[in-house]
Write a structure and sequence with these properties.
Elements (H helix, E strand, L loop, with lengths): L2 H27 L15 H15 L33 E7 L4 H4 L18 H9 L4 E7 L6 H10 L22 H7 L4 E6 L1 H5 L6 E5 L9 H14 L6 E6 L1 H9 L4 H20 L4 E6 L15 H4 E8 L17 E3 L3 H9 L32 H6 L1 H27 L5 H20 L6 H29 L5 H26 L7 H29 L7 H25 L4 H10 L2 H16 L3 H5 L1 H28 L7 H6 L1 H19 L29 H29 L7 H24 L3 H6 L2 H24 L5 E3 L19 H17 L10 H6 L2 E3 L4 H21 L4 H25 L7 H9 L3 H17 L28 H11 L1 H8 L2 H9 L21 H32 L6 H54 L1
Parallel strand pairs: 1-5, 1-6, 2-8, 3-4, 3-5
Antiparallel strand pairs: 2-7, 6-7, 9-10
Helix pairs in contact: 1-17, 1-18, 1-19, 1-39, 1-40, 8-10, 9-10, 14-16, 15-16, 17-19, 17-39, 18-19, 21-23, 21-35, 21-39, 23-25, 23-33, 23-35, 25-33, 26-27, 26-32, 26-33, 27-29, 27-32, 29-32, 32-40, 33-35, 33-38, 35-37, 35-39, 37-40, 39-40
Bound molecules: zinc ion (2 copies).
One zinc ion (ZN) binds next to α9.
């Protein structure tokens, strides 16, 4: 194995360590709720009861009969109270109209608004209001509160199982899997009811094979507002009039997709809601007396039409319940406050009992009490006993209490079996709750005694209140508890991250400090060997520990991963200690003393940055923090070392204005100002996160077509900006590479740069143009025409990337005439200094021809005949990397959308200025070595820490500049459909996931890929202060120092990983510390998750970039070998 491969192994090892620490920490941090597989079943009561008796004996709170046995058979005549699992059905059939993202205020009707004053979503569902007014006892309207995360699949699970979602489930949204827990659908099917389903096909994946009849439609394409809804409307009324169903579910997606595409403030939303109004009206007209109609949203939407988070607008959906017969008694004494808010899971027990099926086992919802306050129309009121007369008076209230009682028993059953598996509920809270349940039961049993009128009322009301308190108490307790953390795993994750950061730092300095390059292979061998030994020795130990100690069984994976990882770190540290000896205090002080001031400042600033991640307001305003730190560190470097070293070596002697203005200091100052201006300008491209107030929301995220066609100046201006910026990237690349002579050949890669990249950008701006067409025009085009351009971009960019990886050398040699050949003297094939001499040779022969020393940029055809030249050697390494980056940037810019294209180009310019600035300062600092070019090259290969720190900050800045935030609502889901219409078969679900991931982590991808430029840039650029002595050999000298190049690159990658590792540590630490913080799921947890995934992306990309440079180097070596073979042949033949 060569040195490069060994260093790569170390990088891989470090990456794995970080990945393992992220995994361990995440495992402890995002715990899943334990799913209980039990299903509610009225027939298997005996077993349940024995469990219950067992508990009663322990607790002594209840008597056996509390379980709903013999004593009160007479009382609960109308409920199957001997089962205590359900009530007699009140409705035979139910129609469920789920209008995705139906926010509560969409359902309201405000008469005071006139037609002109309404917002597009207001007063568009007048049918609701008219039903409430005309038939108040038949209709109920609620605020229907969702539990975050407000994604459709999470909500569907909640709405059918009645359980609370856990955070980790968010990720499942892309490949939804079947619901394992007991749920409404399961219970309905078991009760022999037929379900007809139509709409969003997510249901099909959640409840495969449960529907008697099903009309699923693909839900993926958020741009498609109509096809799901139109499909439903085609089938809805005919199906309602059929008699083969008990439950009819129709899940409309148009409102949600309209929100995603246009937001609620667009006239399309008004049209969509009016359409829904018509649907509801016709359903109401067509339904019979025995049917219950439910119209609700699974979540709301934000002002921009998105959802997923936990803002009030996202949580507040609406629920409207209607039936042709009386739903409730309009008795003011008993009626509950209408328009109140209920939890979405409350629908589960309510619907179950109304339809006469058992409440799903894991349900935590509470029946909606007023739905059970009916009286006269009950089906079997015959059997009434001695209390019947009294109870008849309070019949509605009694029924309400009974429903709550069945519900409480179900919840208690669930809680008991849950705590038997995991004992995690706080004792004092569950004791209070049990007491409430016992009190309610006591009051209930009081009813059997001979009570007078007043006492019955008190008992019923008291029991009702107690059951309700019990149910809501349990819900709160579970909600608080299921964000329960595995502290051991979290601690292991943090410890491992810290140790990995330390290991990175130690190994980095160790490899860097190996003086004897001859021995480097041996040293690396022993380092790798020690790591492996450390890991292998500890592994059996951790296996034994986990199998012996029972308490550790639950955290088995953590232990099995943690100790071997730690062992390998210890092994490597031991190796370093053996070789270098124990460092003493003076060594450390010496090290600090020799570290440049800028680098110490960078470390200090990094520390501040990491610490700032533990404060919620700093996380919220991280976009500003990153910009500030970036501007500050660049200014600092410029002030501390830039100016001083530039002035030192070239004093301003004359007072000539021209001289002063072109002095290196002046030029560097211009660059600094331009850089700062770019940073400021690009920071205008940002979106607001919810917590940033006040903040004016940018409209860049909205697609172009959202805007009023009348406002065409704005539209055109924005489109032109996007077009100019997207074209600038291939143009700049072509210009630069042409100047360097990289494009003279006809290799596949140079053809790509010349033709494919400009074509890509043309396709992209035509694609944007197409997408900004009005919807009606666009929808007339066939689907393949809508996505054709984007698909072409994918194909072309793949070709471009493959070609550059296949042939990474953008150099070209021209044949020479024989009269010049004698000038090249090679002493032998195995000559170390062959490249510079080759270069000298080319240079001198070229000078003879043209009288100047620069490499040819524009060579006419005649000259080519006589000029021997190798083109593009000066930028061998960076040219191909730049090509790769440009291709990736173009594709990402299409994914990011036209709004952010100028930001992308601005950041590219900013990055170039940064590289140039840092290179100039570095050259100025190293001018002292001018006489010793070899030493200077070594120093240039030794990348400074501040340069890497600034690079990392730019990566952070770029994340925000491209319209992202570390929050779930800010994920740009529409990126998954660029170039695809959304009908992905299951095995292609990775495509939208990859596209959305690329959009979200574009900064990690671009800055990781471009990282080697930090090392390569000073070799070809930035020789401002050192013009006279500068050689023009460029990057090709690196070939002669291939080991140094590998170590330099290794060092660079390690430093960058260290930067990200520290950031990750900050996020991890703050997530752990603030795990009980009010804002944990809103601020800290998303910050950690984004950073964790982003870090993994960075690791992969950086390793790929390292491999790419290695490949270029190997190819160059082969090319040179071939060249000298030819030269030798020619010489021999002469
Ligand atoms: Zn939804
Ligand atoms: Zn949605």
């Amino acid at each position: 194995m060569a040195v490069g491969t060994k260093l790569f192994c170390i990088l891989m090892w470090i990456s794995c360590l970080y990945a393992v620490s992220i995994f361990i920490f995440t495992k402890g941090f995002l715990l899943k709720r334990l799913e209980i597989p039990n299903k509610s079943d009225c027939s298997i009561r005996l077993e349940e009861q024995s469990v219950f008796s067992m508990r009663t004996q322990e607790g002594g709170l209840f008597s056996d009969d509390a379980y709903g046995d013999t004593p009160h058979v007479g009382l609960g005549s109308q409920f199957h109270i001997d089962n205590m699992c359900t009530a007699q059905d009140r409705f035979n059939k139910s129609i469920i109209l789920l209008i995705d993202a139906l926010r509560y205020d969409f359902l309201l009707f405000n008469e005071s608004l006139d037609a002109t004053g309404t917002l597009p979503f207001q007063n568009k569902l007048p049918i609701i209001q008219s039903l409430i007014e005309k038939k108040p006892s038949h209709s109920l309207l609620y605020q229907f509160l969702a539990d975050p995360p407000t994604t459709t699949m999470q909500r569907l699970k909640g709405l059918t199982t009645g359980s609370l979602p856990t955070f980790v489930d968010v990720g499942n949204n892309f490949a939804s899997s079947e619901v394992e827990e007991d749920n409404l659908i399961h219970q309905l099917v078991k009760a022999g009811k037929n379900i007809t389903f139509m709409g969003d096909d997510t249901w099909e994946s959640l409840f495969a094979g449960k529907f008697a009849k099903s009309f699923p439609f693909p839900s993926f394409n958020v741009k498609d507002l109509h096809s799901v809804d139109n499909g439903i409307m085609k089938h809805l009324l005919p199906e309602i009039n059929q008699s083969d169903w008990n439950i009819l579910i129709a899940h409309f997606l148009g409102v949600d997709h309209c929100g995603h595409r246009y937001g609620p403030y667009h006239s399309a939303m008004g049209e969509k809601l009016s359409q829904m109004n018509d649907v509801i009206s016709s359903v109401v007209e067509n339904m019979d007396n025995d049917t219950l109609l439910l119209v609700f949203g699974d979540h709301g939407m934000t002002g921009t039409g998105d959802h997923g988070g936990d803002s009030n607008d996202e949580l507040t959906a609406g629920l409207f319940i209607y039936s042709q017969k009386d739903l409730r008694k309009l008795n003011p004494g008993l009626a509950m406050n209408a328009y109140r808010s209920i939890s979405q899971i409350d629908l589960v027990p309510s619907l179950s009992l109304l339809l006469g099926i058992p409440v799903p086992f894991s349900n935590l919802g509470m029946v909606i009490p007023e739905l059970f306050m009916f009286g006269a129309d009950r089906k079997s009121p015959e059997v009434l006993d001695h209390l019947s007369l009294l109870l008849a008076k309070y019949h509605p209230a009694y029924l309400r209490m009974e429903a709550l009682r069945i519900n409480s028993f179900q919840v208690k059953r669930y809680l008991d079996s849950y705590s038997r598996k995991v004992d995690e509920f706080p004792y004092h809270i569950s004791a209070i709750l049990e007491q409430k349940f016992a009190n309610a039961e006591t009051l209930f049993h009081n009813l059997q005694q001979n009570l007078n009128d007043e006492e019955v009322k008190i008992a019923i009301d008291g029991a009702t209140a107690m059951y309700m308190e019990y149910l809501s108490g349990v819900k709160e307790m579970c909600r608080g508890n299921w964000a329960k953390f595995d502290l051991l795993s979290m601690a292991c994750g943090v410890v491992l991250t810290v140790s990995t950061c330390v290991a990175v730092w130690v190994v980095l300095n160790f490899v860097d400090g190996i003086k004897d390059r001859e021995k480097i292979e041996d040293t690396l061998n022993s380092l790798l060997g020690n790591m492996l030994t450390g890991m292998i020795t500890i592994f059996p130990m951790s296996v034994i520990i986990t199998s012996q100690v029972e308490d550790l069984m639950t955290v088995k994976t953590t232990i099995l991963l943690f100790f071997p990882a730690l062992g390998s770190i210890l092994g490597s540290l031991l190796c370093v200690l053996q070789t270098q000896g124990m460092p003493c205090m003076s060594d450390v002080l010496l090290y600090i003393k020799h570290t440049p001031k800028e680098s110490l400042c960078s470390s200090g600033l990094l520390f501040l940055y990491v610490v700032s991640l533990t404060s919620n307001s700093f996380v919220v305003y991280e976009d500003r923090t990153a910009v500030f730190l970036l501007q500050f560190i660049v200014l600092l470097v410029y002030l501390i070392s830039g100016i001083r070293s530039l002035i030192k070596f070239k004093r301003i002697k004359s007072r000539d204005i021209g001289r002063i203005l072109t002095h290196p200091v002046a030029i560097v100052t211009y660059m600094l100002l331009a850089f700062q201006a770019c940073v400021r300008l690009s920071s205008h491209f940002r979106i607001c996160r919810e917590e940033q107030v006040p903040c004016s929301q940018s409209d860049l995220l909205q697609p172009l077509l959202v805007f009023d066609p009348e406002n065409s100046t704005y539209n055109n201006f924005r489109y032109i900006k996007a077009v100019v910026s997207i074209c600038l990237i291939p143009f700049l690349l072509k210009f630069w590479l042409q100047k360097q002579g990289n494009l003279n050949g006809s290799s596949a890669a140079s053809v790509c740069i010349k033709y494919a990249l400009p074509t890509i950008s043309v396709f992209i701006f035509f694609h944007w143009g197409l997408m900004s067409l009005p919807e009606k025009v666009l929808d007339k085009l066939p689907m393949w025409q809508q996505t054709f351009l984007a698909k072409c971009v994918y194909v072309l960019s793949t070709i471009s990337i493959v070609s550059i990886i296949w042939q990474p050398l953008l150099i070209h040699i021209l044949e020479r005439e024989k009269k010049h050949q004698h000038k090249f003297h090679s002493k032998g094939e195995h000559d170390d200094q062959v490249v510079p001499r080759l270069f000298d040779y080319i240079k001198s022969s070229f000078q003879n021809q043209n009288g100047r020393g620069k490499q040819a940029t524009t060579v006419t055809h005649e000259k080519i005949q006589e000029t021997p030249a190798v083109f593009g050697l000066a930028t061998t390494y960076s040219a191909c990397l730049l090509q790769l980056i440009a291709t990736v940037i173009l594709v990402l810019s299409m994914l990011l959308g036209d709004g952010f294209s100028p930001a992308l180009t601005l950041v590219c310019v900013q990055v170039l200025l940064y590289l140039e600035l840092v290179a100039c300062i570095r050259h100025a600092q190293l001018k002292i070595f001018s006489a010793l070019p070899e030493l200077k090259k070594m120093a240039l290969l030794h990348v400074t820490w501040y340069a890497v720190f600034g690079w990392g900050l730019m990566a952070s800045q770029f994340f925000f500049v491209t319209g992202h935030h570390a929050t779930f609502p800010s994920i740009r889901f529409e990126a998954g459909f660029v170039g695809f219409n959304g009908d992905f078969p299951v095995y292609l679900y990775f495509i939208p996931a990859v596209l959305i991931g690329a959009n979200t982590f574009s900064s990690n991808i671009i800055f990781g890929l471009a990282l080697p430029l930090v090392l390569l840039w000073p070799f070809s650029r930035g020789k401002l202060a050192d013009k006279k002595n500068s050689d023009n050999e460029g990057e090709v000298v690196l070939r002669d120092h291939c080991t140094e190049l590998r170590i330099g690159l290794f060092r660079l990658v390690m430093l960058y990983i260290l930067f990200h590792g520290c950031k990750l540590l900050g996020c991890m630490f703050s997530a752990a510390v603030h795990r009980r913080h009010l804002m944990i799921w809103k601020i800290f947890a998303p910050r950690y998750i984004f950073d964790g995934i982003g870090f993994l992306v960075t690791l992969v990309v950086v390793l790929l970039a390292y491999l790419f440079i290695l490949r270029t180097d190997n190819q160059l070596a082969k090319w040179l070998a071939r060249l000298f073979k030819i030269v030798k042949l020619l010489r021999d033949s002469r």
